[in-house]
Design goal:
It is built from 19 helices and 14 strands. It is α/β, with parallel strands linked by helices and about 500 residues long. The protein folds into two domains: about 80 residues; about 400 residues, Arginase, Chain A. The strands form three sheets. It has a ten-stranded mixed sheet, sandwiched between helices. α3 runs antiparallel to α4, α8 packs antiparallel against α10 and α9 packs across α12. The chain is globular, with a radius of gyration of 24 Å. This is Acetylpolyamine aminohydolase.
């Protein structure tokens, strides 16, 4: 993003700034990772320099530098605009990748992540790669048509009007599908608390709740627009990159997570489908899906749910088998490979603890072998009993062996060794095979599988997560059926 420019441009300052920009734009690498929004910001910046009274005092070759930069920016904007026009031809009912909008990223500053980067920087790096995946439909989190009453609520929050913001929330119709789905998971009091925190953040730019949770003035709007983009753009396959969600509970945030998007999406699907779906959840974040499990157990166990939760109980306290026994008020049953199983009404919950279920030979990690076997088992049952399936994949790349963040590798008061990581974490081959199998199962069972939601949770080492983004997009490109031939797939029946 452009640096803040001088209010008073001296000739020497102008020269230095333009030469610095020229170094950035000299090669194609920097230019290739910019979005139209960021290029327009650079264009505004250079135009401001050109309009400066001191610009005419610069030597001609420096003035040519400014014009050359503008020409490069304009050419790149034109090229990207052509690509954006082509994207309109994509059938979003088949598949899309969702990333935060420029405005959403701007409101993620100082939000903690698992390493040195905050959520803004982390997601910006991923979004830059995804924005350049021109062979895939990539949409931002402002790709929605939210009703005006939501915009009114956002304006009241931005103005710091607490009471009128609460009034605006209460004026949203009870049948609004976004609010209805949200309140099926989170309490109205908690939603009001998020609004209040966003207003409090106006004073200093941020509101720190604890070491894991930081709120900015636009946080509530970011959460709602991200959710609305997913709900209002129904698709057979959704790949969502945004703030993590799987630790959020009914009435409180936890572990970087504020709302539980996976749980909200399940409630939404329950509302819009005439026939009940059977849900398969495979969580692969190194930390347990504790908030998601708690919400499902308390509010959604009447739904048919098979939850395979893959995690390492050592990296976060209170998540081992004994702790889960207390949650379910039931002793788990071992089903092989030290995997434990609990049942509550129609919820089948499998805890796959990576500290116990680890790689013993060079092959697919047994945790993912188990998850794939369960997915295939559920598909076979769907064929026999004639019901439909939705697959949800809250994914954390912090379970990758190359993760360096302490929240993924700090166990027993030390950082995990490379040899242990190779046994208790996933590698590129594991994840590539798993994703490819998911696509193959989907393509063979398109009539049974009504939807797949893949949502990014953890993953903090930049080199590792950028490689995973690239691998994932390659797999999507290779396995997704051609958009133009998918007219028979009308997406989920909303």
């Amino acid at each position: 993003m452009p640096r803040t420019f001088f209010e008073k441009h001296s000739p020497s300052n102008l020269r230095s700034e333009l030469l610095a920009l020229n170094r950035l734009f000299k090669g194609n690498k920097f230019l290739s990772i910019q979005t139209i929004e960021s290029l327009n910001e650079y264009k505004t910046l250079v135009s401001t320099y050109i309009q400066s009274p001191n610009y005419s005092k610069l030597k001609p070759y420096i003035q040519r530098v400014a014009n050359n930069i503008l020409n490069k920016i304009n050419e790149r904007i034109y090229a990207l605009s052509s690509i954006e026009d082509d994207k309109e031809l994509y059938d979003l009912s088949e598949c899309y990748i969702q990333i935060p909008s420029h405005n959403a990223l701007a409101q993620m500053h100082h939000m903690p992540a698992g390493s040195t980067e905050d959520q803004q920087t982390r997601l910006m790096h991923m979004s830059q790669i995804l924005s350049n995946c021109h062979s895939l439909p990539v949409i931002t989190s402002d790709h929605n048509n939210l009703p005006e009453y939501w915009s009114q609520l956002f304006r009241e929050i931005g103005a710091g009007n607490r009471l009128t913001a609460f009034h605006a929330l209460n004026q949203i119709p009870a049948d609004d599908i976004i609010l209805r789905s949200l309140l099926a998971v989170h309490s109205n009091e908690y939603v009001q608390q998020l609004i209040d925190y966003s207003i409090q953040a106006l004073e200093n730019g941020v509101k720190e709740i604890n070491s894991d949770i930081v709120i900015t003035p636009g946080t509530f709007e970011v959460l709602i627009t991200d959710l609305a983009t997913t709900l209002l753009n129904p698709s057979k396959m959704i790949f969502s990159f945004g703030l993590p969600t799987h630790h959020a509970f009914h009435d409180e945030g936890s572990g970087f997570c504020l709302i539980n998007k996976t749980a909200v999406l399940m409630k939404y699907w329950e509302t819009v489908h005439a026939e009940p779906l059977h849900y398969i959840i495979v969580g692969t974040d190194v930390n347990r899906d504790n908030g998601l499990c708690d919400i499902i157990r308390q509010t959604s166990s009447h739904m048919n749910i098979c939850h395979i939760d893959v995690f390492d109980s050592r990296v976060y306290p209170g998540q081992n088998h004994l702790d889960i026994n207390k949650e379910f008020n039931l002793t788990g049953t071992e089903v092989g490979e030290q995997i434990k199983y609990w049942k509550h009404n129609n919820l089948d919950y499998y805890a796959v603890d990576l500290s116990l279920t680890f790689r013993k030979k060079i092959s697919l990690h047994p945790a993912l072998q188990f998850a794939l076997a369960k997915i295939k088992e559920q598909i076979a049952q769907a064929k026999t009993h004639h019901h439909h399936i939705a697959l949800l994949l809250p994914t954390g790349w912090d379970s990758h062996e190359d993760e360096t963040a302490p929240c993924g590798k700090w166990v027993n008061e030390r950082m995990m060794s490379l040899s242990e990581a190779s046994k208790t974490r996933f590698n590129d081959g594991d994840l590539t095979y798993f994703y490819e199998q998911i696509f193959q199962l989907y393509n063979k069972n398109r009539e049974l599988i009504k939807g797949i939601y893949w949502g990014l949770e953890g993953g903090y080492d930049r080199a590792m997560y950028e490689r995973q983004v690239s691998l994932l997009t390659q797999i999507i490109t290779a396995h997704l059926p051609h958009q133009a031939s998918s007219s028979s797939s009308a997406g989920m029946s909303y």
